[in-house]
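Hi everyone,

Forwarding the result from last night's run.
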Amino acid sequence: MRNLEKKIKNSSFQDKSLGSGNLNKKSLGAFREREIFEIQLDQYFEYLRFEKLLMPNSISSYERDFKKFRQYLLLNPKISFLNISKPQILDFLKYLYNDNSDISVSRILSALRGFYKFLIRQQIIKNNPWSPVKNPRSSKKILEILDIEEVLKFLDSIPESTPSDLRDRAMFEILYGCGLRVSEITGLSIGSIDFDQKLLRFIGKGDKERIVPLGDTALLFLNKYIDSARGKIEKEKKTDYLFLNMRGSKLSRQGFWKILKKYADRAGIEKNLYPHIFRHSFATHLLQRGADLRTVQILLGHSSISTTEIYTNLTKEYLKDAYFKYHPRESY
């Protein structure tokens, strides 16, 4: 706590109410609490950025997660983030569940545990009030995937007439052929491609390096895009990003979504198409065709094999359907 007093004394918001150096609830007040919270949060983000070496996308995710806690503190100015009680934590959980999924709540709780662990390291507090709070059990959802015919139908709906067409075909061939996330494919650079070894090398989720094979079909369309289209899109702008918008800049996630929506409507596929459905389909199709679970885990970049196991349930359903459809004793 003494360290925090020193930081407050040296900060731009020091006033006479803290002149004695005594830090307590009465002298801080609600406004002082918010300022201290923002200072500590800024320092935590600096720690994540420069000591943990997290990528900008990860930092942005943490910033979004802390918005909910910040909003809750603003709505409840009497709550001290340094001395939050168990009933107040329970009330915050109720607040979260009003408009957040189990997955979102789990992510926010993990972010808060990390932040308060940082406060202990800084000797601001002694105990982490979030440690006893368990993440909600995520309900097992049946993932929707595209079958192979639907994937081919979608890919074949993309023409090869214009530079943007060639970009889009290469982009979706890689998305499905390599099982990438949307943030990963929009973040690819020319330097990510090893043409000789037919590999993609990039930083994936959790700021971990991923290396995935680049199939012949994806490589064919990637070469067409780079040789015949990318230079026309890039124009006078010079950037190493692989997939560009029509202004020659890095393609954004929002731009990617718009392109996906266009081809989803054109292909006439009735399922709800979103970027991750191609990743789900990639994993499921590999398992259906005999790939082992550990291989799929590595290709997807999952830290835990339990995360990959969700796809085995889909494969079991596929096997049952195939059995009842094709086995001679079940076709009566």
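The domain at 148-329 is CATH 1.10.443.10 (hpI Integrase; Chain A).

Cheers,
N.
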